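As a next step, we paired sequence with structure tokens, yielding the entry below.
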Amino acid sequence: MDRLDGMAAFAAAVEAGSLSGAAKRLGCSLASVSRQISAIERHFGVTLLARTTRRLALTDEGRDYYEHVKRIVSEVVDAERTLSAQAKVPRGRLRISAPTLIGRLRLAPLLSAYLADHPQVAIDLTLMDRLPNLLEDEIDIAIVLGHLPDSSLVRRSLGHVRRVLCAAPDYLATRGMPATPQDLAAHDCLIFTTTPGSSTWTFQISGRRTELEVPARLRSNALDVVVSAALGGSGIARAPSWQVEDHVSAGRLQLMLQDFERPSLPLQMIFSDPRHFSRKVQSFADFLAQQWNGDKR
């Protein structure tokens, strides 16, 4: 016996004044209503309703029981309405992770717009340069750059990221425009790297991945330092296209060697299990996809 369904049937019968009225209100059969109320009576060994051919009458036990039941049924209905509303409106704390540079330079500027549109959502943003463990790190959405090993993780594309070479026009006017990657040996290169002492860049030459040692005039683990040096005319920098696109559009930096670029890297969101998607997760995923999807820069 489903006790709650039986309570609802009993309350509906009392309020409708008949079993048929209760059945109509609940959208079920007359036999079902009668069966559920009888099951409660058998379970407790009492008579709740005195049934006549013309109407129902509450017994003393039925009257006491109804006072409790109507409150319980009302609270259940209120709880279901609240839960239904919560399921439709994004709310709660959303935990997001992203690579440091992408998170700081591309994601952070978008958060205020999302938060303004979703006042009941709070965000915890963690910047990390490793693939997170969604369960152990308690992450709802992870933004990752690059190819991922096969796994059960759910993925959603955010486009691709190019890695471009660029320099200030004044630098190129003085030192010349390199025609091939090998020409970089005669240039000052500004290298973003997290590996001390690394001075290599990779290119696509004759369809093959080729790694070249380049002269490092400046090395830094901060990309904005490298881009700033390029803007100042100190040499040639390599950076994600989104980091320098405004400078390129404004003519402050000039792209080069685009025919030798390595294939762009996929940018994507990963989730643990789509069956557990909440409205907050779905709403942010849709928001970010709308902002970034199809970005081939």
